[in-house]
Design a protein that fits this description.
Layout: H1 17-20, H2 23-42, H3 47-57
């Protein structure tokens, strides 16, 4: 049984989101997103997360 997803438009009906937004709207969105995430980017990384990231770089035995 195949489940349909009505909230997902088909490939035929989607257009490029970048093409549909004016440059001023794209600029405003970029500035807003930078302001929202600036604190998160400036915050120190949790030690547990840092340890997990280091493990990703190590080869598996």
């Amino acid at each position: 049984m195949t489940k349909s997803y009505p909230e997902r438009p088909s490939d035929e009906t989607t257009s490029s989101p970048a093409a549909s937004l004016s440059p001023s709207i794209r600029r405003h969105l970029g500035q807003t997103l930078r302001a929202v995430y600036a604190d998160a980017l400036a915050a120190p990384i949790d030690q547990r997360l840092e340890a997990l990231v280091k493990q990703l770089g190590k080869p598996k035995p």
